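Hey everyone, long-time lurker, first post.

I ran two proteins through the pipeline my lab uses and got sequence/structure pairs for each. Pasting them in order. The first:
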Amino acid sequence: MSPLSVIYALSLALNGAGPSSPTHAELLGVISGAQPAPSEASLNSELGRAMTLLSAPGGEDASFMLVANSLWTNRGTQLKAEYVEQMKTIFQATAGPGGAADVNAWVSQATRGMITQLLQSDDFDAVLANAIYFKGLWSHAFKKEQTHKRDFRLAAGQAKSVDMMERKFERSDRITMIRKEGVYDAVQLPYKGDAFTAIALLPAEGVEVAAALKDFAESPQDFRFMPEVLVVMPKFKVSSQMSLTPVLQHLGVKSAFGGSADFSRLSASGLHISDVVHKAVIEVDEEGTVAAAVTAVMMVMCMPLPPPELVFDRPFAFIIHHKPTNLPAFVGVVSDPSE
């Protein structure tokens, strides 16, 4: 998956939430991951600056990333003009009406054909979308003649024969590594242009990938220069598609998904999030890496809640209350109204 794509898509929703609402506070908390959370203005500034840096040209053959945002309306929904203009200014977002076919066409174009379909139906009133495309050539490419079939041990224990790339990096390649004994080994492989690197993290025997990744994230280590290192790594193409709704709700984003959602800066239509869908694909070979990701915040109009219904068809309490003194003048229990 692409955390970056998720952050940008959720930030489009954040900027449409009522500034003092639980919807805004919950989204801001999960996007920033910090306590106390930064202000919306500070977050917007950082994400806008990051977009510029991520998409900065790096010269001939340099790795590059494209970040795109878009706002879509369907079934006559209108977005507030002020919101649309702000998203254009901060996130360079485009805006317009469209159904699933239009959104999917934009996704395909933004990801250069790596992802061609994200939405399955027109069952939405608005979509806030982010797309990311990356292409990077290794600074020190693997030689195709050094790629051979070799066993890869799956998590379940069985071996599978796959194409394994191999390269012995020398002192002049300036490769860096982390070796955390009993936890993981990690190597950093640079792409041309020096703006991006790939980090391949190998858990120690008996350590789960998730545990090693958590340790890597929570206890950062310094990469150290290695005069020589032999790297044997498979060629691969992996993809994933998922709903992020359960994860976001677990992390505390509750009100955005229900009738109490407040997206009053985004639209007067009373919208709430129906789902957050994410798709990512990455392909690695001897020459480098191509990757793409898309996140869509699906929104629908809130259905009006039915009026509360109170049917006193079982024993109940009945109180005569004096408001000025706040005293109960009579208190009784009706157990059988027929007596």
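...and the second, right after it:
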Amino acid sequence: MGFEVEIVAGSYEQISFGYRVCRNGEDWTATADFTHHAHTACLSAVASTNRYIATGSKDETIQLYDMKKKIDQGALLHHDGTISCLEFYGTSHLLSGGEDGLMCVWRTKKWECLKTIRAHKGQLSSLSVHPSGKLALSVGTDRTLRTWNLTDGRSAFIKTLKQSADLVKWSLEGDTYVVVTNNIIDVYNLETATVTATITNPKRISSVKFLQNTCLAVAGDDESVRLYDLTTERCMCEFKAHENRIKAVDSFMVDDFCVVVTASNDGLIKLWKLHLDEDPKPPALLLEVNTTARLTCLTVFKPTAEDKPTEEQPTSSTATEDLPLPSKNKRVRIATEEVILEGDCKPKKTKRGGKKRKSQ
């Protein structure tokens, strides 16, 4: 039975590349599907859901592409500065962060900006949405890690970091998250809000991907990809993937094995077959594609049998309406240890229509 995904990569040359990857038995093939030159500066972020692909660039725009209709959806113009990160929540919402410190929530049905949040005083470097949809994390150049309550759209807590973090990522089950600073990975427990493990990578980290709830794939300023066990802090597997530094790593599951996708400055996109055992062996190369461009970002587009967006229920005028609705069967506890309540983010109340005091 055939299997098909789309690999989409962005480049310094302002172009996004799409390759259709097919599997028939043991044979893997990649064919060029599209090239999209919608930006006027290098691409800095790319994200996908089961219908749309969004790309962000230094030209301050987010370009959209409808993979079902194979048409350009236009551009989102709201940020003032480089688009630093993009992440879809389900099929109904897109979150974006930028150099201007803003976090924006977009509804995919009409591509309207539902919320604009002043998330950081400096650049918003990375964001991640909890699997339940209740929480989001963001890090920025103001040396803070911020927790966002997506139920009401407000900032819940701030944790001051020693250095400005580069990446933040929830685990697959949402019970832990990682914060990456240069080559250091700090693993946090959600319930206690404490660092449970610290891992040092040999080189600066540019991309991370959870393959399992406690297995993290790490790539950065060298030629190798490393798989770390977050409970034991052990490097379970290391393999040389490229000749130059690796800019992005992603993955998807096929049958009983994981396919790790890597993109590098050398212009190559490679797919690796990895069995996620207790002691995984170095993966086997399935195929490689030479884009002849300097790649910057990567995503795996996985179409489903039914490409129907799951739009949220009709909403009222409350803040909750505009944000992703959480799963009912998941409960998330926000710990208050080692964090401080953000008091300066709430606007001061002003009295209106106050009666003048009568002079005596």
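Reply from user beta_strand_b:
Welcome! Quick read of the second one: Residues 307-360 have pLDDT under 50 and may be disordered. The first strand starts at residue 3 and ends at 11.
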